[in-house]
Write a structure and sequence with these properties.
The chain has ten helices and eight strands. The chain is mainly alpha-helical.
Length: about 350
């Protein structure tokens, strides 16, 4: 009897030890795999997944350039990979990554990785003197550290205007205004030509390019012809590049020292001291045009971007860009030139022009 009990004891012990050994393997095997790393330049539609900071995320609807965890468009699907540690909650992926904190004003070179104040990691895509990663998106890209992996500098996603359509719109353009420069600039303002329906997106792109066409003579002029104007307003920071250095440049003909200062601050580029960058760097030049389009109301009451996505009409974009001179009968010929270009471009893109075309 004691011998049988001893054998039973050994059998139970063997089973218990076997289960104890097997359980960890089963737990490890059931860990969720990470989806492909999120890319700031890729377009995601509803239901598509991506991994970021050791979590999988599912897009609720169309999105591009909106970081998972900081935008409502993404639904958190939980931790992925092995960085969660199996205890407690996820710490956003930083268990497997440890990068130095970003320091404003510190010089960084391409490839440097930092942790920003919001806990997210960023990789320098261009050398920079400590620009803010969440603002200067040309210099920094979100960096995912799932299991030690990461992202590469972003490539440009699809633009609603193809290169062939762009060339059709501007058959005589200056070689400075490259399509690649335009698409490289899109990351600075990811809401541009990506908000609303397909029709609205194309209408906004056409509206921007129509105003650009008018301002530059069909993308022929990189700078304004008469550079003798004094665009140096009385500001505390003055005009360090020279009193007559802030003449119109680029697709929206950026002018005045305060606009160079504001645009440079927003884009993480010192345009106040180096205004010539707007006529020598195609991506920066296009970005200044998008900066004005997306953030400035000018003499109007809304930004041109808001005018197009909220249905106010093309006329309100004219008002925001040069309304004090052209609108309300000020210069109807100039207004009509902008409208003609807009109608031409919407036709090329295959969408209606909409209403409220004039101001």
């Amino acid at each position: 009897m004691s011998r049988q009990r001893f054998i039973a004891f050994l059998t139970a012990l063997a089973v218990a030890v076997g289960l104890a050994v097997m359980v960890p393997f089963a737990s490890s095997a059931s860990a969720t795999d990470c989806a492909a790393a999120w890319s700031s330049s890729s377009v995601y539609t509803g239901g598509q997944t991506a991994s970021y900071n050791a979590h999988n995320w599912s897009a609720k609807w169309w999105t591009q350039g909106e970081t998972p965890g900081s935008a409502d468009v993404w639904a958190d699907q939980g931790a992925c990979g092995n960085s969660g540690g199996g205890t407690g909650g996820s710490t956003g992926g930083n268990d497997s990554c440890s990068y130095p904190a970003w320091v404003a004003g510190q010089n960084y070179v391409t490839g440097d990785i930092v942790q920003y104040t919001n806990g997210s990691d960023y990789i320098a895509t261009h050398d920079n003197p400590g620009y803010d990663p969440t603002i200067s998106t040309w210099y920094w890209s979100p960096y995912s550290c799932s299991g030690g992996g990461g992202t590469t500098p972003p490539t440009n996603g699809a633009f609603v205007v193809s290169e062939a359509q762009f060339n059709q719109m501007f058959p005589n353009r200056n070689s400075f205004y490259t399509y690649a420069g335009l698409t490289a600039a899109l990351s600075a303002y990811p809401g541009f030509a990506t908000t609303g329906s397909d029709t609205v997106q194309k209408q906004e792109a056409a509206a921007f390019l129509a105003n650009v066409s008018h301002e530059t003579g069909g993308l022929v002029y990189v700078t304004e012809i008469d550079k003798s104007g004094n665009y140096c307003a009385s500001e505390p920071y003055g005009c360090p590049a020279g009193t007559y250095s802030y003449y119109g440049r680029g697709p929206i003909q950026l002018s005045w020292n305060f606009n160079y200062k504001a645009a440079g601050d927003a884009l993480g580029v010192d345009l106040l001291d180096n205004p010539s960058l707007v006529e020598t760097d195609p991506a920066i030049s296009w970005k200044t045009g998008l900066w004005y389009w997306d953030t400035q109301t000018g003499p109007g009451t809304m930004t041109p971007h808001d005018a197009m996505v909220n249905g106010a009409g093309f006329g309100e974009t004219i008002r925001s860009i040069n309304g004090s001179i052209e609108c309300n009968g000020g210069n109807p010929a100039e207004v009509q030139d902008r409208v003609n270009a807009y109608e031409n471009f919407t036709s090329i893109l295959g969408v209606p022009a909409g209403s409220n075309l004039s101001c």
